[in-house]
Design brief:
By secondary structure, the protein is α/β, with parallel strands linked by helices. It has two domains: 109 residues, no CATH class; 154 residues. It has ten helices and seven strands. Strands 1, 2, 3, 4, 5, 6 and 7 form a seven-stranded mixed sheet that branches. A hairpin with a 4-residue loop joins strand 2 and strand 3. The relative contact order is 0.14. The mean pLDDT is 92.
């Protein structure tokens, strides 16, 4: 017997299970449904191409309808359960859960892309979006996520973060003052420094803008944009009262990016260790988490 029945979920339960309100869920569903029907017409659940197009689901399919499929993948991302437990919630085996996750994650990502909610991944795309603005104020910060420790010693060293004291992966993000994620870097090993990753991103900025960052990016000073960051305490000296006041002002403004990262990590899949062994999974779930965050920002600012 299925424990979760989509028709019985209340508005409050939907927010708790998926982080989304009903209108936000339906916005994704409008694109997700089209993508699922397009996929299922030409491919089976294992990804094999059909000899003839199929226009309706099998009667015994384990997840019936696009609504249940979207609910299935959103609950998994929000709750980060074991696959055995998630299978119990939806009356299917652990193996079937794994099959559906591999299939539905790319469809969810494409749905968010069609809605225009995914952050930019390329420096030139970010440049063009900022160039359209007369002036802009953006914030740069890094975030790390803990991953399971590898049994391979060299891989352990590669992903060990001295800052966190654990094995992690890392991303840099650029957000605006409305907390929308404008840019998400590639997902890299936790041993890479924030500034080194920023250099690798090769970002270019149009003039008439302000970039705020913390001391983890000391030395990162791209052309044309005005960089604002806290004053560093001199060795064996104290900061002046003016510098302390300035740093407090910077901190009060930089808290925006911390709130945005906290909101992104409402999804436990990017807050806790990931058990999945899907290729490129750490990057994909972070991109989806940023897209869902941007969707919430968009809809809740409009309401």
């Amino acid at each position: 017997m299925r424990i979760i029945k989509s028709e019985e979920i209340s508005h409050r339960q939907l927010i708790g299970l998926t982080s989304l309100r009903a209108d936000e869920f339906m916005a994704i569903l409008s694109e997700f449904d089209k993508l699922w029907l397009q996929y299922y017409s030409y491919y089976d659940l294992k990804g094999n191409k059909r000899s003839l197009p199929k226009h309706s689901e099998h009667s015994d399919i384990s997840l019936k309808g696009s609504h249940d499929k979207l609910l299935f993948i959103l609950i998994y991302l929000q709750q980060n359960p074991t696959q055995a437990y998630h299978g119990l919630m939806f009356s299917m085996s652990q193996g079937k859960v794994s099959q559906w996750l591999k299939l539905l994650l790319p469809l969810l990502e494409k749905s968010l892309h069609r809605l225009g909610m995914l952050p930019q991944r390329r420096a030139d795309q970010l440049y063009l979006s900022l160039k359209a603005l007369a002036e802009y104020f953006i914030l740069l910060d890094g975030t790390e996520r803990v991953i399971p420790r590898s049994v391979d010693y060299e891989r352990q060293r590669f992903y060990y973060s001295g800052k966190k004291g654990e094995h992690t992966v890392k991303n840099n993000l650029i957000i605006n003052k409305e907390k929308k994620v404008l840019f998400l870097s590639a997902t890299v090993e936790g041993s890479m420094h924030d500034k080194a990753l920023a250099d690798e991103m090769e970002l270019l900025f149009p003039p008439e803008g302000v970039l705020m960052q913390d001391l983890g990016f000391l030395g990162f000073s791209p052309d044309k944009v005005k960089v604002v960051m806290p004053e560093k305490k001199p060795k064996n000296q104290e900061l002046s009262s003016e510098d302390k006041a300035f740093n407090q002002l910077v901190s009060s403004m930089r808290v925006t990016v911390e709130h945005a990262i906290g909101a992104i990590k409402r999804l436990r899949i990017v807050q806790e260790k990931i058990r999945l062994r899907i290729e490129n999974i750490h990057d994909r779930v972070m991109l989806i988490a940023c897209g869902l965050h941007n969707l919430r920002i968009e809809y809740r600012n409009l309401s």
